[in-house]
Specification:
By secondary structure, this protein is mainly α. It contains four helices and no strands. It has one domain: 23S rRNA-intervening sequence (de novo design (two linked rop proteins), Up-down Bundle).
């Protein structure tokens, strides 16, 4: 068994980026007033949380198709998070710096997910 490296969830770039981003968004939203948290904030946090959650769930699945299905669910959550980010900016809930950081991190994720899917397709036979 010596010399065998197993892929760990924290080694997956898409997971690390999305996990850190979800905590970044949480820290912002937690400081909003009740109405903003209850309307935009809850959905924004849920959308951004589900990116890393779906990657983690896919990682824990056995079959290639099942893994990739959950990785693809993350794409929808990325698009939803982009929408909530935009709404938060328009409604003056985010600073320009916060908005730009979130946007840039979300913008990285499709490429990272494509790499993860490609890796999964090439390494697994089932």
């Amino acid at each position: 068994m010596e010399g065998i490296n197993y892929l760990k969830l924290n080694n997956i770039s898409a997971y690390r980026i999305s996990f850190n981003l979800s905590n970044y968004v949480w820290k912002i939203v937690i400081g909003w007033n009740y109405f903003e948290k209850d309307t935009v904030g809850k959905q924004f946090v849920r959308a951004v949380d589900s990116i890393s959650a779906n990657i983690a769930e896919g990682f824990g699945r056995y079959g290639k198709k099942d893994k990739i299905k959950f990785y693809r669910y993350s794409y929808g959550s990325i698009k939803e998070s982009l929408d909530w980010n935009e709404k938060s900016r328009v409604r003056n809930l985010l600073s320009d710096r916060e908005y730009n950081f979130i946007f840039c991190e979300l913008d990285k994720l499709p490429k990272e997910l494509n790499s993860l899917i490609k890796f999964t397709n090439s390494r697994l036979t089932i």
